[in-house]
Task: structure prediction
Amino acid sequence: MSLSPTIASAIVEAARLIAGADALLIAAGAGMGVDSGLPDFRGPEGFWRAYPPFRGKAFHEISTTHWFELDSQLAWGFFGHRLSLYRNTQPHTGFAILQQWIQRAPAGAFVFTSNVDGQFQKAGFPEDALYECHGSIHHLQCTTPCSLQLWSAEAVTLEIDPATVRASGDLPRCPHCGTVARPNILMFRDRTWLATRSDIQARRYANWLERVRGKQIVAIE
Result:
């Protein structure tokens, strides 16, 4: 496939900028995972293709905290399926290409992402150079919350009915009060998300920006 002169010129210019960068700022959203086979939930049809039982409901209607109170089996069916999907998905080669570019940048790089899938960590990006502004599905918190504690979702294994997207059996619970737990991700109309982990990442990001102030920074989106 031949490229138009405009696109070819833009690629050459982008390569020049990346090669001459002191530092790279990588901004990634849901589209980053598409080449790995992850759904991006773009528009209602995209959501319904990934979750046919939810046809008629929008992503923002399902991705809310009230389902953990109203129907925790449905809530954990949806989020538990996503957790399993992200665990079993291998990052595509684009992550490795980014790492090659980072190695050439004298001042390194930082990743700013709204993704909650943990694919950057799985691809080998350092935890201390990541800002997950919407949290991570691989960490849990109390739904109340009764404390500020977060804990790993590593032990979570759920049986999920694909016809109904409902979880069966024992659901994850808060180790302090016994309430059903939830993923530590920022949901729609979320008033109980604990941003403690994300806030630590945000401070690291701010410190990195301060360290690279005045240097040649290239943002890759």
User: Anything to note?
Assistant: The mean pLDDT is 94. The chain has one domain: 5-220. The two ends are 24 Å apart (CA to CA).
